[in-house]
Amino acid sequence: MIVGETDEQLAERLANAAGGILLDLQASGEFVDSALGKVGDARANAMLMDELRAARTDDAILSEEEKDNVARCGVSRAWIVDPLDGTREYSEGRSDWAVHVALAVDGVPTVGAVALPGLGLTLTSGSPKPLAPANVPLRMLVSRTRPAAEAVYVAEKMGAELLAMGSAGAKAMAVVLGQADIYLHTGGQYEWDNCAPAAVAIAAGLHVSRADGSPLVYNCADPYLPDLLICRQELADEVLRFAAEYSPG
């Protein structure tokens, strides 16, 4: 615990620390494949829980790796964390994995830090970077393993190139960094998958919502959040219109 540390500073410090744990474990060669991801998740989570409980004793915590307690829903401030987003990519030695540390206040993603340790980069809501110009042609992010049909449809309608990438955090930050313009996900996520990315994207001036345009709400009794849109503001109306008109089959 650091006396006087702001929420933004705490989120960034912990995301970086968890990333360091994961990189050190990866470099050690002690574990490989799925065991590497399992141990990495556990070690990063243990550190995050210890630090958050010490630094913010009155706040609630929701973590992918902790047993949930819905009593958190009665607390205004809830830290929502994913110690390792993109376990498969991490275990394969790729760079498109992330650590998410976020704070939701009354359901709103207020503070976020997304560490991309494989790239040596951490993006935060406290230090937003100016957005780069849109790509020509537009670039749209999809899952490496299961591209959502809605996203493929929208990309075709907008003449966008598809860019396959791993974790949700890596995809969201690719939009923040200007490497892509649209991230539409409809295949199912949880609050820890997108709370920190949403906070960082909002701070950067991007459009952030559900796939139907409604707000993302966090610290809910059921943490399942089935869909997400992060994109440039000027593209949002068109993306939402095409997403709404998509019909399976």
Describe this structure in words.
The protein is of the alpha/beta class and 249 residues long. The chain has 7 helices and 12 strands. The chain has helices spanning 7-28, 33-55, 87-91, 149-158, 168-176, 191-203, 236-245; strands at residues 60-63, 77-85, 98-105, 108-116, 121-124, 139-143, 161-165, 182-185, 189-190, 207-209, 224-225, 228-231. Helix 1 runs antiparallel to helix 2 (33-55), helix 4 (149-158) crosses helix 7 and helix 5 (168-176) packs parallel to helix 6 (191-203). It is globular and about 50 Å long.
Please identify the structural class as seen in this structure: alpha/beta
Give the count of helical stretches: 7
Order of helical and strand elements:
HHEEHEEEEHEHEEHEEEH
Mean pLDDT: 96
Radius of gyration based on Cα positions:
17 Å
Uncertain segments of ≥5 residues (pLDDT<50)?
none
How is the main sheet built? 5 strands, mixed
Question: How far apart lie the N and C ends?
Answer: 54 Å
Query: Share of helix among residues?
Result: 25-40%
Shape category = globular
- The side-by-side strand order for the widest beta sheet comes to 1-2-3-4-5
Q: How much of the residues is beta strand, in percent? A: 15-25%
Number of strands: 12
